[in-house]
Write a structure and sequence with these properties.
Elements lengths: L29 H13 L3 E9 L2 E8 L1 E3 L4 E2 L6 E2 L4 H14 L24 H5 L24 H11 L13 H15 L3 H13 L5 E2 L13 E3 L3 E3 L14 E3 L1 H12 L6 H8 L10 E5 L2 E10 L2 E8 L4 E10 L3 H13 L15 H5 L3 E5 L4 E8 L2 E6 L3 E9 L2 E4 L4 E6 L4 E6 L2 E7 L2
Antiparallel strand pairs: 1-2, 1-13, 3-4, 5-9, 6-9, 7-8, 10-11, 11-12, 12-13, 14-15, 14-21, 15-16, 16-17, 17-18, 18-19, 19-20, 20-21
Helix pairs in contact: 1-9, 2-5, 4-5
Protein name: Beta-lactamase family protein
Pfam family, one: Beta-lactamase
Keywords: Signal
């Protein structure tokens, strides 16, 4: 699901990497990248794993945190995580494979499969792959939160998608739609006369020898599957999406190491031909077919990001340098973009910093002076500042509540969202900074 850009963390969809400073000359420094993950783990900022591959060789793989917090089960390199929307890249590969085999055509229309969907005679397979179909994204609806943990049949999902209708004329613009990729998985099942899960195994997993990748089901911690968490005053277990719901839009589980192997194979033409890979890479609005792009220095990385429940993920690939990166988290209390930049900087021999975190402990007396309802006239947003014990919370109107970590007296941060908040208690104001922009808030009297 996608959330509001202001304050919230991007979860599924497009994540942009920041460009950095001039290049360094050092070789790959494993110990330094280890230090980044150690710092994040010690400060309850990240649970999960990352992997890097260069020229087809795995150069780094490390996991940190717990796969099961309640049982204190440590994650390892073979721990399996839900990868969310990275599943869309797998689905796009299967569609391209079907196109190569003559089982479907990218320009054929949806009415061949689902004539009851609005504009079906105008919507092509290519539109579904590139999020230009106009089909409404059912995960955006408030009602989705009431049923996503329950099993859904194909007919129920198709009815939900059909009833939601169309948001715009097919092909006229980009709008991220999980609905389109759910339909693609059903189309694949129809033309191959087998399940989506079986297709993933037979056409991707087995040929590449991926040992820890499959379509997921209910999480089983006993088989080294990770549960997912959000952080408030500790790691809180998240609900589980029933995997019958996301299908080819988000139902796969994997590991960072399997993902870099998958991406290396994909861009080397080992899954589909290089002509199909080039088709996937064709961009409009920075979006291809099951791929999006990420800028990094002067490089253009291809890949995808994902988010489901408390899991977040990203994989990227530089076809020229043959550098592959993957990150999957089952608990993120940090800006995942910053971790991605650090890992890619290590791979490209660019400078980066090991994150340091403040140990400042705010007292309840200090925090009480900051509590109240605040409003920004600049953006018309209301935020309530509250506390639980010695943890400060920002309750954002329409977006829920976010914990703020004390970094100094009257200074707080939400690292996961890239937010800094500085209070001026005497003036009963605070300044919120995010992504290079600052906004002033005043307490309602």
């Amino acid at each position: 699901m996608k959330r509001s850009i202001f304050w919230a963390v991007l979860s599924a969809g497009i994540l942009f990497l920041l460009t950095g400073a001039s290049a360094g000359a050092q070789d790959f420094n494993k110990a330094k990248l280890d230090s980044v993950l150690v710092s994040l783990e010690k400060n309850n900022k990240f649970m999960g794993g990352i992997a890097l591959m260069r020229d087809g060789q795995l150069i780094y793989a490390k996991n940190t945190g717990f796969s099961d917090v309640a049982k204190q089960t440590k994650a390892n390199e073979n721990t399996r995580y839900r990868i969310g929307s990275i599943t869309k890249t797998f689905t796009a590969v299967l569609v391209m494979k079907a196109n190569e085999e003559g089982r479907l055509n990218l320009d054929e229309t949806l009415d061949k499969y689902f004539p009851g969907i609005a504009n079906a005679a105008k919507i092509t397979i290519r539109h579904l792959l590139t999020h230009r179909s106009g089909i409404h994204n059912f995960t955006n609806d408030a009602s989705y939160q009431t049923w996503y943990t329950a099993p859904k049949t194909r007919s129920e999902l198709v009815k939900t998608i059909t009833d939601a209708g169309s948001d715009f004329e097919p092909g006229s613009k980009f709008s991220y739609s999980n609905s389109g990729f759910v339909l693609l998985s059903f189309i694949l099942e129809d033309i191959y006369k087998t399940s989506y899960a079986h297709l993933v195994q037979e056409k991707i997993v087995k040929p590449l020898g991926l040992l820890y990748t499959s379509v997921g089901g209910k999480i089983n911690a006993e088989t080294n599957e990770a549960r997912s968490y959000t952080f408030t005053q500790g790691w809180t277990l998240e609900k589980e999406t029933d995997m019958s719901v996301p299908m080819g839009a988000g139902a796969i589980v994997s590991t960072p190491t399997d993902l870099v192997r998958f991406s290396e194979a994909l861009f080397s033409g080992k899954l589909v031909g290089l002509t199909a890979v080039e088709e996937m890479k064709k961009l409009k609005d920075n979006v291809g077919s099951g791929l999006i792009t990420f800028p990094f220095y002067d490089r253009t990385e291809f890949g995808h990001s994902g988010g489901i429940d408390g899991f977040s993920s990203l994989f990227s690939y530089d076809p020229e340098k043959r550098i592959a990166f993957a990150m999957i988290s089952n608990g993120m209390n940090y800006n995942g973009n910053d971790l991605t930049i650090a890992a890619l900087s290590a791979a490209y021999n660019k400078p980066y910093q090991v994150p340091l975190f403040s140990s400042y402990k705010a007292t309840e007396e200090e925090l009480d002076k900051l509590l109240g309802n605040y409003t920004s006239k600049e953006i018309g947003l209301k935020i309530t500042i509250a506390r639980e014990g010695t943890t400060l919370f920002a309750k954002i109107e329409g977006q829920g509540s976010r914990p703020l970590a004390a970094i100094d007296k009257n200074k707080f941060a939400d690292d996961a969202a890239g937010v800094n908040v500085v209070f001026q208690p005497e003036q009963q104001t605070f300044t919120l900074s995010q992504h290079g922009r600052s906004f002033n808030f005043s307490k309602a009297l």
